[in-house]
Structure formats: structure tokens, C-alpha cells
Amino acid sequence: MMHCGKKHICAVAACILVFGSILICSRKGTHLHSNIIRKIFFQEKNGSPAGHFCRGKPTQNVITPLKDNKTFIIAPYFDGRESKVTRVIGIVHHEDVKELYCWFCCQPHGETQTTSAEIDVHSDRFGFPYGTADIVCVEPPDCDPTHVSIHWSPHGNIDQLPRFEIKNRKAETSSVDFTVCISAMFGNYNNVLQFIQSMEMYKILGVQKVVIYKNSCSQLMEKVLKFYIEEGTVEIIPWPINSHLKVSTKWHFSMDAKDIGYYGQITALNDCVYRNMLRSKFVILNDADEIILPLKHPDWKTMMQSLQEQNPGTGVFLFENHIFPETISTHTFNISSWNTVPGVNILQHVHREPDRKEVFNPKKMIVDPRKVVQTSVHSVLRAYGNSVSVPVDVALTYHCRVPLQGNLPRESLIRDTALWRYNSSLIMNVNKVLYQTVL
């Protein structure tokens, strides 16, 4: 028989007390740890830390006017090719806007640091008072900015300023080979048949993405765009520039004295280059009625491989523009079901105007976006590396539109059926789209 005295009872009680204390503390610690985890999850779910502490009014608009009404912000992009700068694509009045400041939101705590901006108005303004500008701000050395605001003063209330996310901060590998940039779709655009034909030709030649800066189009065209958006080919960038400025449909101020030329086409093209700088190997700058047509190669990929091998280090390839007048047609490929669709049937237009050596040929481009700093419509204004004009026997820009040499007789035109090489695939693909959208 075992006998327990008072000393044994005290010892057992002390052990129970210690064990109970440890258990309670353990539970409290678990509860505290759980609260920390929940707090971190809540912060991450709600955008913290990056951007959560950034002050200012977040904006989702593609065109954002500043309060001076002389500066319009499109988007800021990180550009680390020479030094760490934020390059803001914008539109400014070339005389009235002399001073701007970048208000950076620095991470991880969201403090604001302000630097003076360099306002670099692009040289191709064509006489209009407003032009594309790079608003360039050197990033502070002790700042890792995720957002930026632009203001005419280094002083003010950050909470009242529009806040923009800085794009291209994360390194990416190119997800597609070819992106076509079309700017801008305006004037209640309704050339439905030619648009579908161009889109299907782009896909045959190798495009994966078409970015369209859309101002206005017809209801029927909206239906077609919806099809291509759902397919994953088209990305629409809303482009309501006429809500902010008096826009011209002409390229030069002397032709139409407005605020900015051709619906801000140059600004849209520059934004498109930077928007796709990290996600596309090549960017093609042309209009919806234009197709860069290979003559020695079956598609763009094999053509560009050959051109890059022959021209190492080149970032800009220029293709001669050749007019195929829509007023001269052939009866071949007169497809009855297409006759009810508004727009031009490019397969029936295979006669091109002769090139005039004394007249400037407005070339279109395929560029390596990582080598472009500033672009115009028919040439790159600033770039790393060379620009090369591609010989017309290698490729040309097929441009079906109203004639430029309208007085020429048919026999003076050059019959060029290079487009017909793709007729079987093109007809089949166009029919599929038409039957799902228009017919």
C-alpha cells in the first residue's frame, strides 16, 4: 500500500499549475498567431502593401486631363533601358506646358517623393498646337515606386491628384510573337468586310493580338469586335479624345486647324508600343486597311527571321506602302454572300498604282518594341539600333483604299495577285466569322 504525505500533494498541485499555465499561454499564442495571419491575408487581399498606402485618386481612364486643361495623361511606364525612369505618355500644349512634376508613391510604406519632370514633346507634331509628349521623371534612388501622380507644382494635396499605376515594372517574357496596333478607329467606322478580311489575313500571317484604339464605329462593327474580343484576338482601348480636344481627321494643321491631328494617332501608337513592350516580340504599326504582305516568305515569322539574320541589331523594319485602288476591281472572287456586307472585298482589288519616286512613300513598320523610344506613323523618331527599308520584292504594304492617282487608266496600273496565294484559307476563315456575326 502506497502512502502519500502533504509534501507529495503540494508537488503534484504545483506540476498541474505549471502545465495549465503552459497550455493557456500556448492557446493565447496560437490565437495571436492566427490574428497576425488573418491581418496579413486581409492586407494582401486588399492590395497591401504595394499600392495600399498610395494616396491620390485612382483613375481607370485611358485619357485623363489634369486641372490645367493643357495636359492629358495616357499612362506611365517604367523604362530601365538607360536609367531608372518613369516615362509617362501624354498629350500637352507645346507652348503652354512648361513645368510638370512627378509625385511618386514609394514602397513599402507609401511615402510621397517629388521630382521635376522633363517634358519631351515629339518632333512630329505636324503644326498642331497639341502633340504627343514623354513626361520623363527620374525615379528617386531610395524609392521603389508603384504609382505616380503628375502635377504642375511640387506642392499641393496629393489626395486631390489622379493616381496612375506604373506599368512594365515587372520583367516578363514575350508571350506573343506579333501584335498589330491599329489607331484610331473613328468616324462611325463601318468597313466591316475589309476589317474582317484584314483580321483573318493577320491571323494567317502570324498575329496573336490586335490592339485597337477605338473612338467610334457602327453597331454592326461593334458586333464584329465583340466576336474577336471573345475569341481573344482583339484588345479594345477606349479612345474618347474628342471629349477633350478638337480633333482633326487630317494629318497636318494646314489642312484642318484643330487642336490635334488624326484623332491623336501618334499618341495611341506610342502607348501601344510601350503597352506591348514586354509582352510581344514584334509590334506592327499599320491601319485596318493595310496588310504587310510577304512576297518571298509564307508568313511574318519566317520573314522576320530572315530579315533579322540579314540585319543584326536592327529594331525597325520599314515596308513600302502601295495603293490598290478600290475603284478598280476584278470579277474574280465575286462571292455573292459577301455582297450584302458593308465594306470592300480586297480579293477583287489586285491592281496597284505605280510608285512615284518623286513623292514620299509613307512606309509602315514592324518594330522590336524594346528598341523603340519614340515613334511616329511612318518612321521611328528615336530608337536603339538601326532602321532598315525592306526591299519591295521581299514584302510590301498592301493598302486598299481610294486612289491617290485617280486619273490613271487601268492599263497603267500594275496587276499584282500576291494576295491570292492565301485565297482558300482567307475565304474559309472570313465565311466562318461572317456566319457567326453578320450573315
TrEMBL record:
PANTHER family: GLYCOSYLTRANSFERASE FAMILY 92 PROTEIN
Organism classification: Eukaryota, Metazoa, Chordata, Craniata, Vertebrata
Membrane topology according to the record: Single-pass membrane protein
Location (main, coarse): membrane
Species of provenance: Crypturellus undulatus
Known EC number: 2.4.1.-
Name used for this protein in its record: Glycosyltransferase family 92 protein
Molecular functions (GO terms): glycosyltransferase activity
Gene of this entry: Galt1_0
One Pfam family it belongs to: Glyco_transf_92
Family, as annotated: Belongs to the glycosyltransferase 92 family.
Location in the cell: Membrane
Domain of life: Eukaryota
EC category: transferase
Presence of keyword rRNA-binding: no
